[in-house]
Design brief:
- The chain is an alpha+beta fold and 402 residues long.
- It has a single domain, classed as Cytochrome P450 (Cytochrome p450, Orthogonal Bundle).
- Helix content is 50%, strand content 8%.
- It has 16 helices and ten strands.
- The strands form three sheets. A five-stranded mixed β-sheet has the order 1-2-8-5-3. Strands 4-10-9 form a three-stranded antiparallel β-sheet. It has a two-stranded antiparallel ribbon with strand order 6-7.
- Strand 6 and strand 7 form a beta hairpin.
- Helix 14 packs across helix 16.
- It binds protoporphyrin IX containing FE (HEM).
- The site of protoporphyrin IX containing FE has 26 residues, from helix 12 and helix 16.
Length: 402
């Protein structure tokens, strides 16, 4: 078993290329250990990852009897309430739940939101240094934009946003026992809060996706109360955390290389391709959720047994030279760009259009308002949170520059 890559080490988050290369040297699918999940196969090539994600009948989220893969027996029951959403379900439940919210995330609907997203980004960029000449770009900007957008989509009051920020911060370090206790207490508070919001929507109606879920609930049959909490929880988490790390990771790359930053700022029509490359290069989600192997299978020459578990290693797929030329290089004009940052198959990211637009708006608003923005510390002093599977910069101190 390949245990020589520590997926929670600073080195792996700072630059995953060496870790990916050493795993790939073992083979396209490698047996390893992953925090919380335990023993699991991970894919190291684009093809192997795509196959696991696309074949959703062979590689499922749940084992026989509906037990979720990767959720250990000691995980308290209430956490399972949060794992009752489309990303933890196989067909037909997956489609039953996804179809309720699909419409709100279609290209048309998301494009309609663009001017509004731009306005939020402009306001946040204006306020970046409101509290001092040095600011943490993660907390004051990268976190605020996706959170504002998803809260509005859901119909959650702006006054409640600090609660989500505290909650998001509480789940950042999942590798320690203390981190785990914080996670549990944050989730308990979150569950009480979401239950209360759903009750308000039942009694008073309102705008947004929560009101829509209540409408579907009233029609009967398509969603249970637990699934409603879990859906809102998924959208809040998936919709804000991941995009936060895309934005902070992209800004970090541009601040390390002002020539690149100026090249992009000279023509914002370049931002679409640039964000696609940041998605690939930053890989904010490094691994898919674990899948359960339904029957013995040969995966790219490696024999997996029924009952094994496997994760698609997205960051490795994104660095596979069979998929892209010189994948180790950041090329903001890369085209075509074959990456799996949003997954693929039936669980292909619901928010991919939204995340792309948020990424573009965030970079444009930031560097238009602060064209000489600079890192306040050396790049080597930037640290990553030790959250397995997610690549998140802990803090990105910046100054306005001249
Ligand atoms: C699924 C990545 C933004 C909502 C996924 C998956 C990935 C991913 C890799 C598939 C996981 C798997 O198959 O195991 C990302 C990244 C984002 C991002 C990198 C930002 C840069 C968003 C946003 C939203 C969102 C903005 C919603 C507002 C979802 C949902 C799913 C999902 C609901 C589950 C879809 C399903 O099971 O059918 N995302 N995501 N994501 N994402 Fe995203």
């Amino acid at each position: 078993m390949a245990e020589f890559v520590d997926f929670t080490s600073e080195a792996f988050f700072r630059d995953p290329q060496a870790g990916v290369a050493s795993l790939r040297a073992v083979g396209p699918v490698v047996a390893t250990k992953f925090p919380i999940v335990g023993r699991v196969w991970v894919t190291t090539t684009y093809e192997a990852a795509a196959r696991v994600l696309k074949d959703s009948a062979l590689f499922t989220l749940r084992r026989e009897g509906g037990v979720l893969v990767g959720l250990p027996w000691w995980m308290p029951k209430f956490i399972a309430t949060f794992a009752n959403n489309m990303l933890t379900m196989d067909e037909p439940d997956h489609t039953r739940l996804r179809s309720i919210v699909d419409e709100a995330f279609r290209r048309r609907a998301v494009l309609d939101m663009e001017p509004h997203i731009r306005a939020i980004a402009d306001r946040l960029a204006d306020e970046l240094f409101a509290a001092g000449s040095r600011a943490d770009l993660v907390q004051r900007y990268a976190r605020m934009l996706p959170l504002a957008v998803i809260c509005e989509l859901l119909g959650l009051p702006p006054a409640d946003r600090p609660k989500f920020i505290a909650w998001a911060n509480s789940i950042a370090n999942l590798t320690s026992a203390l981190g785990f206790l914080r996670l549990i207490s944050g989730m308990m508070r979150m569950r009480r809060y979401l239950k209360a919001r759903l009750q308000v929507a039942r009694e008073q109606g309102g705008e947004g996706l929560i009101a829509e879920l209540v409408r579907v609930e009233k029609e009967g049959g398509r969603i249970t109360p637990d699934e409603m909490i879990s859906m809102v929880f998924l959208l809040l988490g998936a919709g804000s955390e991941t995009t936060t790390h895309l934005i902070s990771g992209s800004v970090f790359e541009l601040l390390k290389d002002p020539v690149r930053r100026d090249w992009l700022a000279a023509d914002w029509s370049r931002a679409g391709l640039a964000v696609e490359e940041f998605l690939r290069f930053v890989s904010p989600v490094q691994f898919s959720k674990p899948r359960y192997v339904r029957q013995d299978v040969d995966l790219e020459g490696v024999k997996l047994k029924k009952g094994d578990r496997v994760m698609a290693m997205i960051v490795a797929a994104n660095l596979d030279k069979e998929a892209n030329e010189c994948p180790e290089q950041l090329d903001l004009e890369r085209r075509p760009n074959r990456h799996l940052s949003f997954g693929t198959g039936i669980h292909f990211c619901l928010g991919h259009q939204l995340a792309r637009i948020e990424g573009i708006c965030a970079l444009q608003a930031l560097f238009t308002r602060w064209p000489a923005l600079k890192l306040a510390v050396e790049p080597s002093q930037i640290h990553w949170r030790r959250r397995p599977g997610i690549r998140m910069i802990a803090e990105l101190p910046v100054v306005a520059g001249v």
